[in-house]
Amino acid sequence: MLSIVTLVRDRNAMLDRLLAGCARQRGGPCEVVVVRAGGSEDPSEVAARHPEVDVRTTTVPGTQGTIPYATARNHGAEVARGEVLAFCDADTIPSSGFVGAMTSALAAHDALATGEVRYLAPGAEATDDEAELLRRSAPHPDRDPVPASGVALGGRAELVWGLCMVLRRSTFVRLGGFDERFTGYAGEDTDLSTRADAAGLPVALVGGATVFHQHHDWFDPPVQQIRATVANATRYHETWGRWPMEGWLAAFAAMGLVDWEPGSDRCSVLRTPSPAEVEACRRTLAAPFLARTRPSGRVAAS
């Protein structure tokens, strides 16, 4: 069985669409483990709308509207019963072939797996028509191309992110799960992907296992999460000797928020962004991708 593990913090409307996607699955049994941040919206009412989906909800402490990503993902994995763990963000919608394709891929390959991630235009998430979701979405320009069907081995580990990261439970345990020294926002998934790569685990690009990313406001760079992002980037650099999320760090530096440059050994926050600077970085248009690539880390819409 495959377990989808998702984290939710005041995103019940998006969770509702994720569960609707789970209800449309064609291949094999699955369950959904919803890990909620304490103090946020209760997802149990949303789960009750989908009695055909095996949903289990659990809670981890949250502070000031945040969720401890690494701890929450590990907790979800502990609660899950499946032999395959699929970490999918609450703002994604799995395609109807997701469970079947991923289950088959992980039965054949001990790998770090991901499917195609397609970013939806505003309002497109309202439809249940998968053909319409495909028509009104775009693939990420910097991610490895995924085959239409079957499995291609050899993708880049640093581009397997927590919004769609799938592996065998036994492999997840062998790798040690997510490093809970990463707190708050970003980096814990890149660290696990890097550990998988260092352990010789191939990346599997799985055809037919598309996930659709629901449109929402985002920040470029994520100035509202600057301290957590810098702390986690520093933790990654201390472990691996290179910087993740370099595009974000460069953008912070250009704004005078951090002391950092490529090749440096440290990154420090110089000041907190003003409310006006935070709002200036908010993005709401249906233009999820920037022209530039962010090596070893995120692009703005993730």
Automatic annotation (TrEMBL):
<dbReference type="InterPro" id="IPR027791">
    <property type="entry name" value="Galactosyl_T_C"/>
</dbReference>
<dbReference type="InterPro" id="IPR001173">
    <property type="entry name" value="Glyco_trans_2-like"/>
</dbReference>
<feature type="domain" description="Galactosyltransferase C-terminal">
    <location>
        <begin position="160"/>
        <end position="213"/>
    </location>
</feature>
<protein>
    <submittedName>
        <fullName>Glycosyltransferase</fullName>
        <ecNumber>2.4.-.-</ecNumber>
    </submittedName>
</protein>
<keyword id="KW-0808">Transferase</keyword>
<dbReference type="InterPro" id="IPR029044">
    <property type="entry name" value="Nucleotide-diphossugar_trans"/>
</dbReference>
<keyword id="KW-0328">Glycosyltransferase</keyword>
<dbReference type="Pfam" id="PF00535">
    <property type="entry name" value="Glycos_transf_2"/>
</dbReference>
<dbReference type="Pfam" id="PF02709">
    <property type="entry name" value="Glyco_transf_7C"/>
</dbReference>
<comment type="similarity">
    <text>Belongs to the glycosyltransferase 2 family.</text>
</comment>
<dbReference type="GO" id="GO:0016757">
    <property type="term" value="F:glycosyltransferase activity"/>
</dbReference>
<feature type="domain" description="Glycosyltransferase 2-like">
    <location>
        <begin position="3"/>
        <end position="119"/>
    </location>
</feature>
<comment type="pathway">
    <text>Cell wall biogenesis; cell wall polysaccharide biosynthesis.</text>
</comment>
